[in-house]
Write a structure and sequence with these properties.
Strand order of the largest sheet: 8-7-9-6-12-13-14-15-16-17
CATH class of the largest domain: Alpha Beta
CATH architecture of the largest domain: 3-Layer(aba) Sandwich
Number of domains: 3
CATH topology of the largest domain: UDP-N-acetylmuramoyl-L-alanine:D-glutamate ligase
Helix content: 25-40%
Shape: globular
């Protein structure tokens, strides 16, 4: 592959977040880019159109004409996809998304990779921002829109590339996790919990995947791992590279102490090997974001950054789209949106928002949309996750038919469990009925937290419009 210099690159599954970013990276580097997808619609179709990239709506052999020099196959593409079948019957070279990122974005540069069940998107965006403010002109690829850049990628010309390491599988021809394809100079591991029940059979399977991630770090590289999590400690015992832990434990190499909620964020002191290293303010709520910030600080320190330069940079971080993002305030009602979907993420997000807005009634609106949250495996944990909410509205999981009946998550059961605990909860079969049921319940002073890993049928803008925004 290294001897090939492709001019025309075709992307199968181009409208995925990562694939669309790759399209932008390739276009910026001067390649001719085409792509195909089953559902080409805004905002990705508009984004790609703005780049001048032609997108074929639907898959078929005809999309490989004119013949590309290289094809990149997204992990949404199944082996029986007609375009994939046509590709397999040619000698057109093919790459997966992470292989393409290695080749076209990382190249000879050093990579910093962030992996973990929770926090990896925010931590990746934080590291990229800190590198940028320090004048190191980084490239990056992150699984959300970094608001400082208004993009989820950047090519950059500096010596470092920051990548979000995804544990999901690579492609139909490579079922390994995406993150095993990177060779990080610095590898961050934020957490390990069970997730992605559609590809992982149990927790041991997940643990083995993260162990394989750490095996990709060169012996002279560095691992930074959250030291307050037993599973992380367990996996790191077998790591081939040096490990530094960060967290609250006094055993951690990097420790956050004096954690104080402040207006719009969190203040904390970073200790290095037990000694004060710097005082920081992170404009995000919640202790979980302090760990994300501490991981980013430790990663930059590993590259030689000093605390003074990082203090101002950290304070200027604007976050990631749909991570505690304020959508607006309408008639005294604040609307926030967050990506939270795993029970742990739901719990820590609600806790953070409760801490940041103690005087407001907290209305949690939840869509169990992921392949895992549509399954019963988290039925009980979800009931415990909403303890900080005053009012909870839950819709029926979309596309529940994709899950075997005996494995299906029950939103009705969740609401019944919450009510049994003495909480006020409401069930709705779809988003339209949820919105209609939500509006009469709201009053000035409320805070509505909308949680979903998708667009929730455009619930947030529809709610803002209905409230007079």
């Amino acid at each position: 592959m290294n001897s090939i210099s492709p001019k025309h690159i075709h992307l199968l599954g181009i409208c995925g977040t990562g694939m669309a970013a790759l399209a932008g990276i390739l276009k910026e580097q001067g390649y001719g880019v085409t792509g195909s997808d089953e559902h080409a619609y805004p905002p990705m179709s508009t984004f790609l159109e703005g780049l001048g990239i032609a997108v074929q709506n639907g898959y078929g052999p005809e999309n490989l004409e004119p013949r590309p020099d290289l094809a990149v196959v997204g992990n949404v593409i199944r082996r029986d996809n007609p375009e994939a079948q046509a590709l397999l019957n040619t000698d057109i070279p093919r790459l997966s998304l992470p292989e393409a990122l290695n080749r076209f974005l990382v190249g000879e540069r050093q990579s910093l990779v962030v992996a973990g069940t929770h926090g990896k998107t925010t931590t990746t965006a934080l590291i990229a921002w800190l590198l940028y403010v320090l004048g190191l002109d980084p490239g990056f690829m992150v699984g959300g829109i970094a608001r400082n850049f208004q993009a989820n990628y950047r090519v950059g010309q500096g010596p470092y590339v920051v990548l979000e390491g995804d544990e999901y599988d690579t492609a139909f021809f490579d079922k390994r996790p995406k993150f095993v394809h990177f060779r990080p100079r610095v590898a961050v591991l934020t957490s390990i919990e069970f997730d992605h029940a559609d590809i992982y059979t149990d927790l041991d399977h997940v643990i083995r995947a993260f162990a394989s991630y750490l095996e990709t770090v060169a012996p002279d590289g560095q691992i930074l791992a959250w030291g307050d999590a037993p599973l992380v400690l367990q996996v790191c015992r077998r790591a081939p590279a040096p490990v530094s832990f960060y967290g609250v434990s006094p055993d951690c190499h990097w420790q956050a102490v004096n954690i104080i909620p402040a207006s719009g964020g969190m203040k904390f002191t970073a200790l290095k090997e037990g000694r004060p290293w710097g005082e920081f303010f992170l404009p995000m709520l919640g202790a979980h974001n302090v760990w994300n910030g501490l991981a980013a600080i430790a990663a930059l320190a590993e590259l030689g950054a000093e605390p003074g330069a990082l203090q101002e940079a950290l304070a200027g971080f604007q976050g990631v789209h749909k991570r505690q993002e304020v959508a607006g305030e309408f008639k005294g009602i604040i609307v926030l949106q967050d990506f939270a979907h795993h029970p742990t993420a739901v719990a820590v997000t609600l806790q953070a928002v409760r801490q940041g807005y103690p005087e407001r009634r907290l209305v949690a609106v939840f869509e169990p949309r992921t392949n895992t949250s549509r399954r019963r495996i988290f039925q009980a944990p979800y009931a415990a996750a909403f303890k900080d909410a005053d009012l909870i509205l839950v819709r029926e999981p979309p596309d529940l038919w994709k899950v075997e009946p005996e494995e299906q998550f029950s939103s009705r059961q969740l609401v019944a469990d919450l009510e049994r605990q003495g909480q006020t909860a409401r069930y709705f079969p779809d988003t339209d009925q949820l919105l209609a049921g939500l509006l009469p319940l709201l009053r000035p002073g409320d805070l509505v937290l909308v949680m979903s890993n998708g667009d929730f049928d455009h619930l947030v803008p529809r709610l803002g419009e209905a409230l007079g925004g």
